[in-house]
Amino acid sequence: xVCFPSYGQNKYERxxxxxxxxxPEKALHYISEEIQGAKRVRFYKEIDSTKISFEAxxxxxxxxxxxxxxxxxxxxxxxxxxxxxxxxxASWANIQNYLSTTFKKxxxxxxxxxxxxxxxxxxETTIKNAFQNLLxxxxxxxxxxxxxxxxxxxxxxxxxxxxxxxRKLRKSLPPNYDHVLY
Length: 182
Known about the structure:
By secondary structure, the protein is of the alpha+beta class. 16% of the residues lie in helices and 46% in strands. It is built from 3 helices and 10 strands. The protein has helices spanning 25-31, 89-102, 123-131; strands spanning 6-11, 13-18, 39-48, 52-60, 63-70, 75-82, 105-116, 140-148, 153-161, 166-172. Strands 1-10-9-8-7-6-5-4-3-2 form a 10-stranded mixed β-sheet. Strand 5 and strand 6 (75-82) form a beta hairpin. The chain is globular, with a radius of gyration of 17 Å. 18% of the residues are buried.
């Protein structure tokens, strides 16, 4: 597999909660079995600078899941929040090496293990693999990182493949708040 990292993109993303009935019917069909017995099931609509997607987030078997679909209810990926200890040592060493050589300082805010839908497997297989929490060569690690390149800290969304090689780097802008924070 040949991978071409992309740089210089900014991530303009806005996520807001929606009702279950506003979620795509086809998407609900895919996950109806998986959200049985899940806790804190929430549905979201996400507007990005390039697309609109829908996410179901919930906790099941002590893990936090996020399942993302496109506007038509087609499965895009499944993410599980993990910790550094859950990543194989060689992969983590590559990720650490990238962070230390790219940034003066960095702090990891969040790590997600991502199961993308690939051409070689069905969405049902992706769902099965994600809920078994398998370490596969097709998975990715998505990190939200506060990092310092020059003078000030910026937030980045960085995607690594299963071996810890860079796939994508995007500067993440702070979220827009429609309400006052106290």
